[in-house]
Amino acid sequence: MRRRILAALSGAALAIGMAACSGEGAGGGGDTSGDKPADLTIGVSMPTQTSERWIADGNSVKEKLTAKGYKVDLQYAGDDIPTQSQQVDQMITQGADVLIIAAIDGTALSGQLQAAADAKIPVISYDRLIRDSPNVNFYVSFDNYKVGVAQANALLVGLGLQNKDGSKGTAAGPFNVELFAGSLDDNNAHFFFSGAMDTLKPFVDAGALRVKSGQTKIEQVAILRWQQETAQKRMEDLLTSSYNDGSVVNGVLSPFDGLSRGIITALQNAGYGAGAKKMPVVTGQDAEVASVKLINDGVQSSTIFKDTRLLAEQAVIAAEAYLQDKEPAANDTKTYENGVKVVPSFLLPVQTVYKDDITSVLIDSGYLTAEEVASGQAK
């Protein structure tokens, strides 16, 4: 393993002085291509355990790395930025050879990334792009703009304005819809919303869709930290302020299953899904088992499936490339500009899941079991 002499390299002079004493380059980095996996450590920093998606991501990355013999330091930050900063600091000082980071706030780790660069530790940004730093080596994710496009198309399909093959549907509207976006400090939220709005705009312009609240900017519709309770409260406020005249919501663009469940709870509490008030079309993302059950039960309309097993696999491939003193293969070198540079990326495809896709896409692939879908709980 590369020796880490970084313990507290708070300044360049200290780094140079320590390097002179040790006989190594600044930061103590070195070539690990000849080292055995058992002598190498990969630090894996995940944002939270409140979402089953991130638990699955962390476990999947760790399992794939340990199966290859590497040591893995997996940490969850509890959606707390200082905690994640401290955890990454600790990974660096304890000698991580590669860092895989899914950031809570994509702009909050610049100091840690500089320390990693000083120690010659490659940084792989995992699913959420780390911004405003030159010290991000690689990015693994899904095509996040296309996720937004897929969510918007799912909303249009649910409303009958469009068919699954993209052809014109039989419905004409106008339909009342409301928009939700993710956390503004998550770079992906902007891609999701941009893809969705580019897709919905022609229907809004034609009058087939109308956002009755008038809230169409991402700053108006964003949900900090992707919190389910915050989404529920916002939906409740929308119903009170914009639908107190007897009008109804026909559809909700939701970018994440956790938000979708909060939105659905607010709608159900207002009488939707019972009697004459039909449950609106509600989209989602991540194929969380609780939401897949809601889709199977006809409550939620759809979700976007991002196979995190494949994402974890790409993170491992990238990490191994760096450990072998190679550059990982990218399939996108233009899209993901982080404010300082374009980060070479590997993007994976996504799938839209409606009720009739659950078995073929989620169960047959082994992602979920029929029992998990029926119960709404992961085993």
Please give a handful of descriptors for the protein shown.
alpha/beta, six-stranded parallel β-sheet, four-stranded parallel β-sheet, 13 helices, 12 strands, 12% strand
Summarize the structure.
By secondary structure, the protein is α/β, with parallel strands linked by helices. Helices cover about 40% and strands about 10% of the residues.
Please tell me about this protein's structure.
It is a single chain. Strand 1, helix 2 and strand 2 form a beta-alpha-beta unit. The strands form 3 sheets. A 6-stranded parallel beta sheet has the order 2-1-3-4-5-11, sandwiched between helices. The chain has a 4-stranded parallel beta sheet with strand order 7-6-8-9, sandwiched between helices. It has 379 residues and is an alpha/beta fold. It is 40% helix and 12% strand.
Q: Topology of this structure?
A:
Layout: H1 12-22, E1 41-46, H2 52-67, E2 71-76, H3 81-93, E3 98-101, H4 110-118, E4 123-126, E5 138-142, H5 144-159, E6 175-179, H6 187-205, E7 209-210, H7 218-221, H8 228-242, E8 251-253, H9 257-269, E9 281-282, H10 289-296, E10 303-305, H11 308-323, E11 345-348, E12 351-353, H12 358-363, H13 370-375
Parallel strand pairs: 1-2, 1-3, 3-4, 4-5, 5-11, 6-7, 6-8, 8-9
Antiparallel strand pairs: 10-12
